DNA sequence: CCATCTTTGTGCACGCGTTCACAAAGACAT
DNA sequence: ATGTCTTTGTGAACGCGTGCACAAAGATGG
């Protein structure tokens, strides 16, 4: 799962729980697939299986949105697609800028999952003058100098940062200064933003490290019979997959 | 057969909370930066600020690892780097394969954050015969036919899936069949894996949708109730969640 | 050696999220 | 209409994570 932070303090009034919001896109994807197969209705059990969650959780999630189901039948697929889309704000157009058109930025620009959800890549921005004008995913890259103007001209409120770590905070400050209030950060840095600005971060390295932790524990479990806790220097030598280290081939 | 989440129910022995594990890489990154600046010790307050978390939370996190701090002084940076690295299993070499060398796969192959954390890209695999042999990030792409052999020859236990959604489950099955027990999934699909296999997913589109939800709510807040005149500064949030802005630019 | 000061480590309370289990609601057949 | 059957919506219990607040531990200075 992606490591997002900056959760809000439980929106007071008509608050949909943050955990529920995070699952709505999951339901929406499953529902869209059903819709394309012209399935008219779906039960909480079926939909939950398709989305990979518990059915009770799914029903509770939907209960925050309203009573959109029919007892004894299930949920109307089309209607639910619409309701969730509306709740997530996907019925409107969201212009997005991507800053930092390296490998990752280019991959993001080419990513098809954006356009299909109401997100439109309004501009690509990079600090390298050599990139300026060069088309990526059919969109010409523009220079960082024009960042503020681009944001304002396009009414952009969501920015994606795919720059190196060193440039991220500076880019972030300029985005916020120009009016961006939501940021998706791919740079491995903690961003400081004023109140009212949302930041979600995706860190590939962190995800791998979490996997490594579990992987190590799995490997240790096999060899661990009974262990006295000595609390300091466990000579844990998991005879894991690195028994034979072939050749380290630097990139 | 489990679907998607393979949650570990706090196994008997050394149960470090999942939430803590997810933050360890964050601390490690901050500590590494301090180490490079030859800072000998750091207090929980300083380190917490650098990692963007609450200091009490950080101390509690560390308490699960052991008592590595010195009261009145703080934590020894080098020692803590080692302890966290060991806990995360980063002191050993983790060969990783990336399947699906499109835009995203290529970006991942080029990502520098892997090698610096003990992860080694052992192989790149793609289904397109035209890609075979072509070097990406200095590593020749190999064909899917050889997937099983590559996994076994290199002792790979962590796989990264960057294929289109349609191919993801099939690739996943083959990876698991060949011995992979941890998967990082970038395809927008719910993967079914047997018990004992961990799956983490990163979905770019979902992150944007969550941002859109909050963005829409912000926009709605302004028009409801009284008008917020001065642009971007909203009403005070009762408490600072994580978004506190200490902006520590340490000397 | 004692006093004071700093910072860790943690007991405790609170709130959010998850899950169970079941009554209410509606469809459908007779 | 009435009974049966299916599935939703939710009250309630539980567990995990978070943050406060403070005592314990060690450093430091006199």
UniProtKB/TrEMBL annotation, chains A, B:
Classification via InterPro entries: CoA-bd, NAD(P)-bd_dom_sf, Rex_actinobacterial-type, Rex_DNA-bd_C_dom, Tscrpt_rep_Rex, WH-like_DNA-bd_sf, WH_DNA-bd_sf
Keyword set includes Lyase: no
Compartments (UniProt record): Cytoplasm
DNA-binding region: 26-65
Entry keyword set: Cytoplasm, DNA-binding, NAD, Repressor, Transcription, Transcription regulation
Gene Ontology terms describing biological process: negative regulation of DNA-templated transcription; response to redox state
Annotated CoA-binding domain residues: 89-190
Family per record: Belongs to the transcriptional regulatory Rex family.
Protein's job: Modulates transcription in response to changes in cellular NADH/NAD(+) redox state.
Assembly and interaction partners: Homodimer.
Protein known as: Redox-sensing transcriptional repressor Rex
Naturally occurring in which organism (per UniProt): Streptomyces himalayensis subsp. aureolus
Lineage of origin: Bacteria, Bacillati, Actinomycetota, Actinomycetes, Kitasatosporales
Gene: rex
């Amino acid at each position: 799962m992606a490591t997002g932070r900056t959760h809000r303090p439980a929106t007071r009034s008509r608050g949909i729980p943050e955990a529920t919001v995070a699952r709505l896109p999951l339901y929406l994807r499953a529902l869209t697939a059903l819709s394309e197969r012209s399935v008219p209705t779906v039960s909480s059990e079926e939909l939950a299986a398709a989305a990979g969650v518990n059915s009770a959780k799914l029903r509770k999630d939907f209960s925050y949105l309203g009573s959109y189901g029919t007892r004894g039948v299930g949920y109307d697929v089309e209607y639910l697609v619409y309701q969730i889309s509306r709740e997530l704000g996907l019925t409107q157009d969201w212009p997005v800028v991507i800053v930092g058109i390296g490998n990752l930025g280019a991959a993001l620009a080419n990513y098809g999952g954006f356009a299909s959800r109401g997100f439109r890549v309004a501009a690509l921005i990079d600090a390298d003058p050599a990139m300026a004008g060069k088309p990526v995913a059919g969109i010409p890259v523009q220079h960082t100098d024009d960042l503020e103007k681009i944001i304002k001209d396009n009414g952009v409120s969501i920015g994606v940062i795919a720059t190196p770590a060193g440039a991220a905070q500076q880019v972030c400050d300029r985005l916020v200064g120009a009016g961006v209030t939501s940021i998706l950060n791919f740079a491995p840095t903690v961003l400081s933003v004023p109140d009212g600005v949302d930041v979600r971060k995706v860190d590939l390295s962190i995800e791998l490290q979490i996997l490594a932790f579990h992987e190590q524990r799995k490997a240790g479990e096999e060899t661990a019979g009974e262990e006295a806790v000595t609390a300091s220097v466990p000579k844990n030598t998991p005879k894991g997959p690195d028994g034979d280290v072939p050749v380290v081939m630097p990139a």
